Amino acid sequence: MLNKLKEEVYKANIAIDEYGLVKLTWGNASAISREEGLVVIKPSGVDYSMLSPDDMVVVDLEERVVEGRLKPSSDTPTHIFLYRSFREIGGIVHTHSTWATAWAQACKSIPCFGTTHADHFYKEVPCTRFLKTEEVENDYELNTGKIIGETFSTRDYQRTPGVLVAGHAPFTWGKDVKDAVKNSIILEEIAKMACLTLLIEGETEALPEYIMNKHYFRKHGKDAYYGQK
Questions:
Q1: How far apart are CA 80 and CA 61, in angstroms?
Q2: Three-state SS sequence of 185-204
Q3: Does residue 120 contact residue 226 with C-beta atoms inside 8 Å?
Q4: Contact assessment for residue 123 and residue 200, using Cβ atoms and an 8 Å cutoff
Q5: What is the pLDDT of residues 141-173, one digit of tens each?
Q6: Which of 119, 139, 140, 176 is catalytic?
Q7: For the residues of 150-167, what is the DSSP string, one character each?
């Protein structure tokens, strides 16, 4: 079942390990088949070096395992909530990459300081609020998805394809799981650049909006002209 999607999800999980975005078993990638209403996700707590495409777990949108001999990621409820809420996405990546996680632990959104950021993430990368006690004690992973949705209630999730969960770590998404991996790589780099920028000059101002707009929209939208047609 969904063998092609399993292969893509397997490769995405291997990629986030190879790019140094995860340590040990700290992360996961998933993808959705909108036609089937099924999600393929990494199994819980399995080392990346031990994974195979057949280990990927298929779940439905009610979190029921449809196929797979292993337990799905403990973050499955978060992924499913995001797939339900963000109807245009096809893949999700969650890591504990060092620089982005540092911003999450500081409970700070990442300002748009430069054009590298503006090329890929429109405006700041937001940080959620902390989960409340009852939200942690009951349906923790589902509530993680809910606070991400809450954070994007006034934001465009397609223009800003990632978030920092306060005290936790980043999530990214994309049109497919390969795109979500790319956004995770970019998020880690701009998080690092932002940290180093503030080390050089702690009072650095955000990139002027007209420059941010130029860089974002030359790559995205109907008037984009960057790259090959």
A1: 6
A2: HHHHHHHHHHHHHHHHCCCC
A3: no
A4: no
A5: 999 999 999 999 999 999 999 999 999 999 999
A6: 119
A7: HHTTTS-TTTS-EEE-TT
Instruction: Give residue 5's pLDDT.
Output: 97
Catalytic residue among 54, 60, 156, 226: 226
Smallest CA-to-CA distance from 163 within 197, 143, 196, 187 is with 187
CB 170 within 8 A of CB 163: yes
- Residue whose entry in the numeric block shows the structure tokens 């980043």: 170
Measured distance CA(67)–CA(93) in Å, rounded: 21
Give the tens place of pLDDT for each residue, 12-49. 999 999 999 999 999 999 999 999 999 999 999 999 99
Matching residue, tokens 């809450």: 150
Instruction: Report pTM.
Output: 0.94
The two most distant CA atoms of the chain are separated, in Å, by: 53
Q: Tokens 């399995």, residue?
A: 46
Neighbours of 209 (CB within 10 A): 11
The yes-or-no answer on residue 119 being catalytic is yes
Provide CB contacts within 8 A for 105, sequence distance 6+. Answer: 167
Q: Which residue has tokens 């999980």?
A: 13
Q: What fold is seen in the domain 3-108+125-178?
A: L-fuculose-1-phosphate Aldolase (3.40.225)
Buried b (16+ CB within 10 A) or exposed e, 56-79: bbbbeeeeeeeebebebbebbbbb
Beta strands in the chain (DSSP E): 27-33, 38-41, 57-60, 65-67, 91-95, 162-164, 170-174
